[in-house]
From TrEMBL:
Gene Ontology cellular component terms for the protein in this record: plasma membrane
Broad class of the protein's primary localization: membrane
TM segment ranges: 23-45, 91-111, 123-144, 156-177, 267-287
Membrane topology, as annotated: Multi-pass membrane protein
Subcellular location: Cell membrane
CDD domains referenced in this protein's UniProt entry, alphabetically: TM_PBP2 (cd06261)
PROSITE patterns documented for this protein: ABC_TM1
Keyword vocabulary terms for this entry: Cell membrane, Membrane, Transmembrane, Transmembrane helix, Transport
Similarity remark: Belongs to the binding-protein-dependent transport system permease family.
GO biological process, one term: transmembrane transport
Lineage of the organism: Bacteria, Bacillati, Actinomycetota, Actinomycetes, Micromonosporales
Pfam families noted in UniProt: BPD_transp_1 (PF00528)
All copies of domain ABC transmembrane type-1, residue ranges: 87-288
Protein name: Sugar ABC transporter permease
């Protein structure tokens, strides 16, 4: 570095940490707080209020446990406990798709990264192309295919399409291609391990971070999926909770005035249903956070 360059670098450093930095950082933080934190706080407080209190009281004034209990009972009494069934359906669809995704996606990523076979590169390109296709664009052809074999209305009509997770295959491919020492796998083969034994005994135990990462993304995608179950499941008994929220929304007089009656749902109850629909993803994230961080940082250096 020349002496002429140093003052410029020093000036740049002063610019980043000077008055512009002191102004820019608080502005950015304030915008993020207003945009993300404030709606979440309001939503949580709304679950503790009555329908009247949500409208006439201060937006950030908390309610009481009695109102929360009333909203809870109203929610789980809706259509004779339909919400409980919707949550269980979501769990079944998400876990079923997750298991199939791990069984199929992890070995697929390993094979494309560390084995040689015909059309390997074409298969990898196809995986990348499919990742770019919006999921909603695939719903109609999937519906027609499943209708031919008579699976419409069956839980498999939701589980099987959600098990197709090319992003998980690509994540696994990147991990195995950059983070697994090939000499270690070669040593296992020299010791007499078959390719399946090399994968299950050597590569897979080292890939726990990326397995956790793929599992988390697969679970979140399946849990939050709305359009596919909405098309595939004609009966509300099979709805996941995300589709069930539309039934609650349609039964809320504030959004649908014609729904006023014995099965109507008030706004605080709808807010509580929204919180419950997000809670499983939050719990899974908290318990798997350590593995997620490890999975995101692996592959940063190459062998």
């Amino acid at each position: 570095m020349t002496p002429v360059d140093r003052p410029a670098d020093t000036a740049t450093g002063r610019g980043l940490t000077g008055w512009s930095g002191r102004v820019l950082v608080p502005v950015v933080v304030t915008v993020f707080v207003l945009f993300f934190a404030v709606p979440i706080v309001w939503l949580l407080l709304a679950t503790t209020k009555s329908a009247r209190g949500l409208i006439v009281e201060h937006p950030f004034r908390p309610g009481g446990p009695d109102e929360l209990a009333t909203n809870w009972n109203e929610l789980f009494d809706f259509q004779d406990g339909a919400v409980t069934g919707w949550v269980l359906n979501s769990a079944g669809y998400a876990v079923g798709a997750l298991v199939i995704t791990l069984i199929a996606g992890i070995p697929a990523g390993y094979a494309m990264a560390l084995t040689t076979f015909r059309f390997r590169r074409a298969l990898l390109v196809l995986t990348l192309v499919v990742m770019l296709v919006p999921n909603t664009a695939l719903v109609l052809p999937i519906f027609l295919e499943l209708n031919v074999i008579g699976l419409i209305g069956n839980p498999l009509s939701v589980i099987l399409p959600m098990s197709f997770f090319p992003f998980g295959v690509y994540l696994t491919y990147i991990y195995f291609a950059t983070s697994i020492p090939r000499d270690l796998l070669a040593a296992a083969r020299i010791d007499g391990c078959t390719e399946l034994q090399t994968f299950t005994r050597v590569a897979l135990p080292l890939a726990r971070p990326v397995v956790a990462l793929v599992a988390f993304f697969s679970f979140v995608q399946s849990w939050n999926n709305f359009f596919l179950p909405f098309v595939m499941l004609p009966s509300s008994d099979g709805y996941p909770v995300q589709v069930g929220l539309t039934a609650l929304l349609a039964s809320t007089p504030a959004f649908n005035p014609s729904s006023a009656g014995s099965q109507s749902v008030q706004l605080p109850t709808l807010a509580l249903a929204t919180v419950i629909s997000v809670l499983p993803v939050l719990i899974v994230f908290l318990f798997s956070q350590r593995f997620l961080v490890a999975g995101m940082t692996t592959g940063g250096t190459k062998e």
